[in-house]
Write a structure and sequence with these properties.
- Helix 1 (2-23) runs antiparallel to helix 4 (382-404).
- The protein is flat and about 55 Å long.
- Mean pLDDT is 74; it is low at 5-9, 11-29, 188-217 and 367-392.
- It is α+β, with helices and mostly antiparallel strands.
- The strands form four sheets. It has a six-stranded mixed sheet, with no helix packed on it. Strands 12, 14, 15, 17, 19 and 20 form a six-stranded mixed sheet that branches.
- The protein contains four helices and 20 strands.
């Protein structure tokens, strides 16, 4: 008996070491913020002065990130782009005066280094910061490079995603310029027409019932299926011969169906859809609503929410990114067959829409499973933390029994 309890004590000691290790997995750590930063819209066009570079800061942790700061470093070609317009905050509280960048040959490249304060981010929240660079010369190609770094007052759970880098590129006036616009699931239960009396009527109906309330009522329950809708359009001056669309879904969400042309990840949380022969004409050339030539396509994918998803909750982390395929001569535009999950239409002006877009999945309350109150956000603790706590408790119990049992003289 004593031998068995002594062995149990040794097992308990091992569990005491193992339990906290699992419980403290940074991905599920309690009491820590987890900031991440991403940059979109870095392909600019001199003919579109309102195109913005968008920096998104998200807190995937479990507590509010306080004293958040964003640092912007890198370089720009000052002959082409005004470095003073690359500001993502209303005011910078620390800045190094742009200075000539050491290069092998004489150039007008200048280094930039500025830091600004960002509002505190609660767990699961995100904020988008925009800068609208101004160009002063006609040029194409790479005209700069930015590195964005975020920090906060506490210890970050995953420091590796606290920084992101991207080149600044100017597209030529005759090139394609694809955008993607996503609708959260199912945050918009209807889409008003572009123009006309119908648009006014639908807008009035939405104002009467409240779009947010309507979306909440239509939220996807745990185990249910929702529809992700997104639009890809060409607002450039050149023909796009095709595209690649990458879709990343939030945690607790999977694709409920598959489509030709799409390669899915093993966990069905990601997909890469390649359409090599799916041309989009410039929106200015998409004048006849009766033909089969389109400047934009509306896609639809069915998604399934996990049975174990928290509810009510807003599952964030959805991401769409579109990359154009170089356009050559595309004969017979009207003979091109659209994918079965798409509809052709004319490209619209969505303002800040760029080559990437984010979306959320709204999960409705499951009866008897969620208390009243604000919706949950962010990731759930998951099994590693639960298992770690159970192992720790078991280890303490076995070690206690081993100490209390008297050993033979």
């Amino acid at each position: 008996m004593c031998t068995r309890l002594a062995a149990a004590g040794r097992i308990g000691a091992v569990l005491l070491l193992l339990g906290p290790t699992l419980a403290a997995d940074p991905a599920y750590a309690t009491g820590q913020a987890d900031l991440a930063v991403e940059i979109d819209g870095a392909t600019l066009r001199g003919t579109d002065p309102d195109k913005a570079v968008v920096v998104t800061v998200v807190n995937r942790g479990t507590v509010t990130a306080r004293s958040v700061r964003l640092r912007v470093t890198g370089w720009v070609d000052s002959e082409v782009m005004n470095p003073a317009t690359l500001r993502f905050c209303a005011a910078d509280d620390a800045e190094t005066v742009p200075s000539p960048r050491p290069t092998a040959v004489p150039s007008l490249q200048v280094s930039i280094d500025r830091t600004c304060a960002v509002a505190d981010l609660p767990a699961g929240a995100s904020t988008a910061l925009r800068a609208t660079p101004r160009t002063a010369a006609n040029a194409t190609g790479t005209v700069g490079k930015l590195t964005l770094t975020v920090s906060h007052a506490g210890t970050d759970a995953r420091p590796a995603d606290n920084a992101a880098s991207s080149s600044l590129t100017l597209a030529g006036p005759a090139e394609q310029d694809l955008y993607v616009r996503a609708w959260s699931v199912p945050a918009e239960v209807a889409q008003p027409p572009e123009t006309g009396a119908g648009a006014t009527q639908v807008a009035a109906a939405f104002a009467a019932v409240g779009a947010v309330e309507a979306a909440r009522a239509a939220a996807v329950p745990p185990g249910g299926v929702g529809e992700l809708r997104f639009e890809v359009g060409n607002r450039g001056a050149g023909l796009s011969g095709g595209m690649t669309v990458v879709v990343r879904l939030p945690d607790q969400v999977r694709f409920a169906e598959t489509h030709p042309g799409c390669a899915y990840g093993t966990d069905h949380r990601s997909a890469t859809c390649t359409y090599l022969d799916l041309p989009l004409v410039p929106s200015v050339d998409d004048a006849d609503p009766g033909d089969r030539v389109y400047s934009a396509l509306r896609f639809s994918h069915l998604l399934r929410v996990a049975d174990s998803a928290p509810a009510p909750a807003t599952l964030d982390g959805g991401l769409l990114r579109v990359t154009p395929v170089a356009a050559g001569y595309v004969p017979g535009l009207e003979a091109v067959a659209l994918p079965g999950n798409s509809t052709g239409l004319r490209a619209r002006d969505y303002g800040t829409a760029g080559e990437a877009a984010r979306f959320e999945v709204l999960v409705g309350a499951a009866a008897g499973t969620a208390p009243e109150g604000l919706p949950l956000t962010g990731r759930s603790p998951g099994w590693p933390a639960v298992l770690g706590l159970l192992l720790t408790t078991l280890g303490l119990l076995l070690a206690h029994l081993s100490r209390r049992t008297p050993h033979p003289a």
